[in-house]
Amino acid sequence: MTRWDLGHYTPRKDSAIAPEVWEKLLRLEGRYPWRRGMLVPALMEVAQHHKWVSRRQMEELAEFCEVSPTEVMGVATFYTMIYTQPVGDYNIQVCRTLSCALCGAERLIEHLKEKLGIGEFETTPDGRFTLTPVECLAACCGAPVVQINQDYYENVTPEKLDEILASLPEKRTLNPKGEAR
Amino acid sequence: MAPKEVRVCSFGRHIEDYWKLSVYEQTKLCEDAEEGMVGYSAARKALTTMSPDEVIEEVKRSGLRGKGGAGFNTGLKWSFMPKDDGLEHFLVVNGDESEPGTANDREIMTWSPHLLLEGIIIASYAIRANTCYIYIRGEMFKQIRCMNRAIEEAYEKGYLGKNIFGTDFSLDVYVQTGAGAYICGEETALLSSLMGERGYPRPKPPFPAQKGAFDLPTTVNNVQTIATVPAIIALGADWHLSYGTEKSPGMRMFCVSGHVQRPGHYEFPFGITLRELIYDVCGGPPGGKKVKAVIPGGSSAPMIPGDATDNDLLDTPLTYEDCVTAGTLLGSGAVIVMDEDTDIVWAAHNLIRFYAHESCGKCTPCREGTPWMRMVLERILRGEGVSEDVKLLADIAEGIETKSFCALGDAAAWAMQGALRHFSHEFEEKIRRGKGAAKVFQASYASGLMSLYQPTLEPVRTHRDPRREAEQIAHPLARRMRAWYGGDEE
Ligand SMILES: Cc1cc2nc3c(=O)[nH]c(=O)nc-3n(C[C@H](O)[C@H](O)[C@H](O)COP(=O)(O)O)c2cc1C
Ligand code: SF4
Ligand code: FES
């Protein structure tokens, strides 16, 4: 499935990016006529696996995509899903845009703040939960919608949310493909 | 009585395992398809019996209009692609669905990934593209997995790759993930993002058909647009023309959300009225309430009043032309229903906060204007509004509309203007009642990340300092902006 041959990158020996992520990143090579095209998906892969992207990782991605590190930083800070600071094991993203707000999203946010004792964009001291209000998740028919890491939960009520949070495993798990769940 | 549903893009939702290639190629293409018109037969027909120009001509004649928002004739858009220029061409499928209220593309990618792939094969053949990127928004991990799996299956079966159906046409399809930015749905911003840049829109011209992805000719189409193409090729342009109205032929998926008993996706020919859709199909608002306002085409379309008001516009047929007559837009076909108890000021604030959050910051009217409107709305919600605020909001909206770089600014202005046009009395009422009517202003109303505009996020001030207030509302750029765009004073 390789269309363009633009050379191959060899990751540094002491890379800050996990080998299983590199495996996926190297598969992106040859998909775009410019190496730079790989940047956004690459940042996403790193952010998903490591929960956030550090400066050192950005530098390596800059080498990988043949752009300057500042450009990587510029791109990383544009997108809301690429965190440049650590987030909790479970990032609870509550949609608060109109359809969900009409169906009670604010109640969910208030409930979570109270239950977890944190404010918006904050992480619990044990590093387990982060509360992130987000804009429309494109599942408006199931409003209100909550996304926890990669999974969507629809028609959520505070009670249902309690159940969901209680059912989450102790530690963030990766599925067999190494994707964060 | 509501007209009958026509299932084209939503056909697969009702069939078990439709997302598997083995099921897709055994099942007829859509409800109207005849015997033998199974999955991938339309692509086979296009590639083996038609020339690319014939495909374009057929789609043009069918009157298919883009479902992404602007409603441009798809066949016409394809015909802008250069022919025989010896360059690489690209098809980019826009699956960055983030318009509040819209959830159609997600359904198609989940339930009928092969329908989308079949459309991609036909469209790529028509525009002479050998590479297609499906740009899916980053949050949709499930849909990304669905599409990747479907692409794998299609490669195995030879529907993608080299020499498809024994012709000399080859096609590679890749899934490109977004990373969370509404503006990346705008086609030029999407291309910037695809090229590994910040998702800033780019000036047009040059149009994507001249200089698009990686500076090569590119066509950007919405997921639902592409997913409608196989049925048009299989059943013909006349079949498509037999549905809908003259100016809006065919059908589209409507995504109804908000205060209705049965929210969901429904596919109807253009021309079904809002009343039929909301009451007959979705059961109306819960608790026997009436509708105060409806947004018929995603948050960018101005809201129109419903049957709880004196100016009931629910009989508007959902077509591009009738929506414009009613002072709104069909946009992305996302119907958001607000019942009679909804606070319109609150709803407007919610929408404007969305735009203030998603403005990419490239151009001044939108970058400065949207947070400014948000601040004024927050002030009204806190019960501290002043009587000039309604006019101020209208002025800011006017200062953004048509003066911003891309359509996001316009959309924000329209959302504000729609609320003001039909519900200005609610704004005035709220301002008049002041603190008495104020909801307890919760921090979650405000956008947490916009630290730049932190002053408004302060707790409610106990005594008002008119000078400070004036300063805050006369945002640094406010006066200069008015002077520049022509305001009344100065
Ligand atoms: C701010 C903004 C956001 C947009 N978001 C989307 C989107 O999420 N999905 C989409 O298909 N089109 C979106 N569009 C429309 C695209 O720019 C473009 O018109 C569309 O992808 C063209 O495809 P079509 O002709 O098939 O409709 C957006 C436009 C603007 C201005
Ligand atoms: S109108 Fe808004 S989103 Fe569009 S370019 Fe200007 S700042 Fe960016
Ligand atoms: S408004 Fe919440 S998912 Fe769309």
Under CATH, the topology of the largest domain in chain B can be stated as Rossmann fold
The spatial strand order of the largest sheet of chain A comes to 2-3-1-4-5
CATH architecture of the largest domain in chain B: 3-Layer(aba) Sandwich
What's the total number of strands of chain A? Answer: 5
Number of strands of chain B: 9
CATH superfamily of the largest domain in chain B: NADH-ubiquinone oxidoreductase 51kDa subunit
Compute the separation of the termini of chain A in Å: 27 Å
Name the helicity range of chain A.
Answer: 25-40%
Low-confidence stretches of chain A: none
- How much β-strand is present in the residues of chain B? 5-15%
> Largest beta sheet of chain A, briefly?
5 strands, mixed
* Number of helices, where a helix is a run of at least 4 consecutive DSSP H or I residues of chain B: 18
Query: Unreliable runs of chain B, pLDDT <50, ≥5 residues?
Result: 440-473, 475-490
**What is the annotated CATH architecture of the largest domain in chain A?**
3-Layer(aba) Sandwich
SSE order of chain B in H/E notation?
HHHHEHHEHEHEHHEEHEEHEHHHHHH
Task: Report the total helices of chain A.
Answer: 7
Strand order of the largest sheet of chain B: 6-5-9-7-8
